[in-house]
Amino acid sequence: MSRSLPIAVVAALLSGCLLPIASTQAQTNGVSFDATTKVFRLDAAGLTYAFGINDASELQPVYWGKSLGQQEHLPPPRRNEGNASFDLPSSTTPQEYAGWGAGLYVEPTLKATFPDGNRDLVLHYLEYATAHSPKGEELTVTLKDVASPLFVDLHYRIDAATGIIGRWATIRNRTAASVVLEEAGSATWNLPRGTDYSLRYLTGRWAGEWNLQKQHILPGETVLESKRGSTGHQNNPWFAIERGDHSDEETGDVWFGALAWSGNWRIAVEQDQLQQIRVTGGFNPFDFAYKLVPNQQLETPIFYAGYTSHGIGEASRILHRFELASILPQAPTPKPRPIIYNSWEATGFSVNEAGQEALAEKAAQIGIERFVMDDGWFGQRKDDHAGLGDWYVNKQKFPNGLKPMIDKIHALGMDFGLWVEPEMVNPDSALYRKHPDWTLNFTGRPRTEGRNQLLLNLARKDVRDYVYNFLDDILTSNQIAFLKWDYNRNWSEPGWPAVGPDSTEQKKVYVEYIRNLYSILADLRKNHPNVEIESCSGGGGRVDLGILGLTDEVWPSDNTDPLDRLTIQDGFTYAYTPGVMMAWVTDSPNWVNNRTTSLTYRFLSSMQGSLGVGANLDRWKPEDFATAKDLIASYKLIRETVQHGDLYRLISPRDGSEQSATESISPDKHQAVLFTLLHSSHEGYPFPRVYLRGLDPTAHYRVIPIAGSLTKDSLPVATGSYWMDHGVDVDLRGDLQAAAFRFEVVKD
Ligand code: DGJ
Fold it and tell me: What pTM was computed for the model?
C-alpha cells in the first residue's frame, strides 16, 4: 500500500517527525516504494522512473525508460566502490541530487558554505511522503546533511498523460546561522553507462534563433546556459539525448528535458569517468549566491524531463501535448490563437491614431481577429532613444487617448492588443530622471546601455509595484485583450545597492527579479483574466517553460523572412508547441536579407504556426488582399489542427535541404494538414514523395488543396494507409514555391 497524503499533511509531517517507510507493490501508474529493496518507482504513460536508497544512504538512480512490468523487482541500488583511490565512491556513484562534499568530482546539484567555513555537504536520505496534486502524483523525498540540519526536499511529480516528470528542490536551513548556497540545482537526471549517446540542443542569436545542434556525447562536459539575466537567444533550456546511431524522427530511445526558468540557468551534460551520463540543471551557479537565514528556504525552478522509444519526433509531440495540457495558463484547453495584425514592420515607431485606424480597416477586410499596436505609442517615444518607463499615452500621436482607436477596432470586429516593455527604462525618460537608483547598477560604476536602455531592478519591491500598477492601470482604463510584453536587452552590472554591500544579498537579484516578474504576470492574469500575453524578447530571447506558464504565446524571432523562418520554426518545435509559435506574414523583399517571395509562399510558411500578419497593408494591391483573405479563411479551418494537433516533421529544411514538409494531425485524426515548400528545383527532379504519418489507416481521407496541387495522377480520396505507405506526390517546381493540403476524413 502506498502512502498517499494531502500535501498539507505531508508538509506538517515533513517539518516534524520521520515518516516510516511503508512496503508497497509497484503500481502501473503513480508513485510507489518497495521497502525491501528501498526503491521508489514512478510509473505513467508507458514509462518507469526508479531510484533507491543505497547502502550509504544516498539516493541513487536505478532505471529510466520503457515501463517495467509490475512483477519486475528492481534490485536495490548499490554504490560503485570505485576502481582507484582517485575515484571515490561519492563521485563514481550516480546520485539523484548530490551535495558538493565527501570528494565529488562531477557536477554537484547543491553547494553550500556554512558560517564556520565548512563547505562540505553530504546529503543522506531521511524520509519520504506522497501526495495527489491536480497536476499529477507527487513524491517528496527529504535528504539531510550528515552533520547539520540543512534539509533538501526533492519533489517529483509525474504527469499521467505523458510520463513527463517535474523535479525541483526546496532547500531548508534549520541551522542556527546563515548558510550561503553557491549552487542550487533542480535535479540531476542520470542515464546508464554508455558511449553511444548523442545530445541535441538549441542555439541562436538575435534574428537567428532555434538552430538545432547535434553532437556525440564524449567524456567531459557540455554546458548549456544563460549568464544574461534572462533565458537568452544563445541557448535554450532544452535538451534531448538519443541512444545509438540509428535513431531518427520516429525511432530510437530519447530522453529529453526542459527547465522552467526565465533567469540565469544552466544545464550541464557530462559523461563521467565511468562513462555514465548526468544532466544537472537549475539556477546558473555563475556569480550565484543565495543566503538562507535560519528557517529560510529556497525553492528551485522545475526541471521537466521525459522519455520515449519512438524517436525525437515523438519526444517533441510529448512535450507539445504536455505544454498544452499542463503548462500554459489556459491549460488543459488553451484557446486557439487569434489571427493578429501587428503594426511594427509597417510603421515602426511612427504610430498615430489615423495611421493605425487605416491599417485596422484593411486588416479587418482580410479576416484579422486581433489588431496589435506595437512600439511608439507612449511617453516621448520617437525612436529607441527615449520614453521607456513613461507609460502614458503620447498626446501628439493620440490626442484623444487610445479609446477612439480601440472603439474603431472593436467596431471593425477585432479585439485590441498593445505593446509594452515594462522592465526597461531609457535614461532619457521622466522615470529615470526621478529614480536613477531603480536600475540594476553597481554604485559609482558606468551603466552599460543596450538599445539606449537600462534594466529596472524588478527585484526591488517599489519597482515591482510601479510596474504592476502601471500595467494594471492601462488594462483597467482601456479595453485591451492582449499585451505583447517585450524585453530588448540582456543584463549588465547586476548590482542591487539598496540591499547593502553584502554580495550574497545583492546576488539574490538573479532569483528575486524573476520571481517578481512571475508574480506581476500572475497578478495581472488574476485581476484581468481575459487578457492574453505574449512573451517577446527581441524575438525568441525569453521562451521557456517558466514564462510559458504565465503567457499564452511567444514571438520566436524578429526574423520574418519566410525561408529563414522554416528552419527557425523547425528548431522551435523540437522543444515548444506550434500552438504558441507566432508567425507573421510580412513584406517582400524581406528586411532581413532582401529575399523576394510570393505572398502565398509567405503565408504557407507562417500558417505552420500561429498565423499573424505584419505587412504594410497600405502598400498591398487588390490581388494581395484577395490572396490573404482566401488563405486566412483556409487557416481558420485548420488552425486547431496546426496549433493543438500532433506535428510530424516530414522533410527537414535544415542543413541546406532544398525542400521542407510538415504534417499536423488533429487529435481525433479526422483532419491532417500538409505543408510542402521547395527552395529551388535542380535538374528537373520532381518534389520527393511525401509519406504522411499518424493517420487512421482504415479511414478514407479526401485531399483538398489549400494552395497548389498534387500531381495529375494523384487520387482524390484514399485510405490513411495509402497516404502513409504509398505517399503523396506534390506538383512543385521552380524556386521558393509552396503548396498545402487538407486531408479530411470522408464520412460514410
Ligand atoms: C522587438 C520585437 O521583437 C519587435 O517585434 C518589436 O516589437 C520591437 N521590439 C519594438 O521595439
Answer: 0.96
